[in-house]
Predict the structure.
Amino acid sequence: MTLAELVRWTGYLNGAIDVCLLIQLLRYGLVRRYCWLFGYFLADVLEILLPIRLPTRSVWYGYIYFGGQAAKAALGVALAINLWRLALLGYPALARFGRQIVIYMLLAAISVAAVGLLLEPATPRGQNPLVHSLQAIEGAVDSMVLAFLVAAVLFLLWFPVKVRRNLAVCIGGFVFYWFQRWAILLLLNRNPAHYTTLGEVSLVLQLGCLVLWMLTIRPEGEIVTTVTGHRWNPAETEHLLGQLDAINARLDRMVH
C-alpha cells in the first residue's frame, strides 16, 4: 500500500468515526447543546464523502478540499465561541465579552494575512498561488482560534468554574484537535513537498481525538460536573469566585 492510499483509507476511517459521533449526539439528544460540534463532524464527513470517486489531483477534488477546510475553519470559530458560552453560562457578561474578543481577533487575523500576502514578493516555488493564499488565510484563522482556546483554557484552569463533564471533554479534545490542525498547516506551508506525509500525520492525530470523544461523551456527562480550577483549595476557591462575580458584574455594567 502506498502512502497516498494509506492517507485515503485513514481519511475513510476518520469519516466512519465522525458518523458514529453524529449518531451518538443524535441518540443521546445532545445535538441542540453541541450544535456546532455536530456541524463540524458533519462538514468533516461531507469533505470525505463528496470527492470519494475523484482523482486526488483533479480540480473538483481541490475545490471540495479547500471548500471543506474553509467551512471547518468557520465552524471552528463558531464552536470555540459556543464552548466558551457553555462554560460560562453563569456569567453571561463574560461570555459576551469572549465572543466580542473572538470577532475582533478574527478580523485582525484576516487583515494581517491579507496584508502579508500583498507584501509578499513571490509565491514559494512549487506552490499554486491560489492554494498558497487560501492556506495563509486559513493559517491566520487557525492561529486566532488556537490563541483564543489557549487563553480560555488558562482562564478556566485558574478560575473555579463548574462545568459539565461532557463540556470539559469537548473543550480539552478541541484544543488538542485544533493545535494539531494549526501545527500541520504551519509545517505544510513551509514544506509543501511533504503534503502526503503531513496529511497522514494529521489524520492519525485527528483519529485519536475523535476516538476519545466517542468513548467519553455520554448522557451521564450532562449530569456529572467538575470544577475547572483551584478545587483543591476551598479558601482560594471562594476568593476567586468573588473575583469572577465582580468581573462579570463590571462587564455587565459597561454594556448597560
